[in-house]
Design brief:
This protein is α/β, with parallel strands linked by helices. It has six helices and five strands.
Length: 168
Amino acid sequence: MFRTVSQNRDGQPLIVYLPGIDGLGALANQFLSEAETRFSITQLHYPGHSRLTLEELADGCVSALPEKKQSGIIWLGDSFGAAIALSIARRHPQVTQGVILAGGFSKAPSPFKLLTTARLWDSCPGKWRKQVVRRSLNRLARKNPAKIQKNSIDEILSNGTSKRSPGA
């Protein structure tokens, strides 16, 4: 269920990146590529379409790491990942050295709103969902071409990441 991609640096604290609700972290690739040159970073990818609770996601993230890495972890939660990072810190303080919250919720949405949104999203045909994501990525590319380039949008939609190197 969880896949880790590691870049280990001896003597560095381990930072574990927890992506937003999409479960991929595709929009953070450029930042993570740069950060991996300085820090020991592991990315966790979880299914964005699952019906797991925050507690189940938190437990799964901790169990996805090898036992030798399960201490002194700094959890970097991006967007929805911030809620998971807080849940990990609460449920697994023995493995948590710190928490970094990036663009997280200031107030958690009600479970009813989350479930309604998830059901609406799931009931839409896949083609429509892809169009919504494509429009959002195009808008981001127009507003900030340094974050994402238009020619990488198809690649992001097909495999969740862009192979474009940082600074390219």
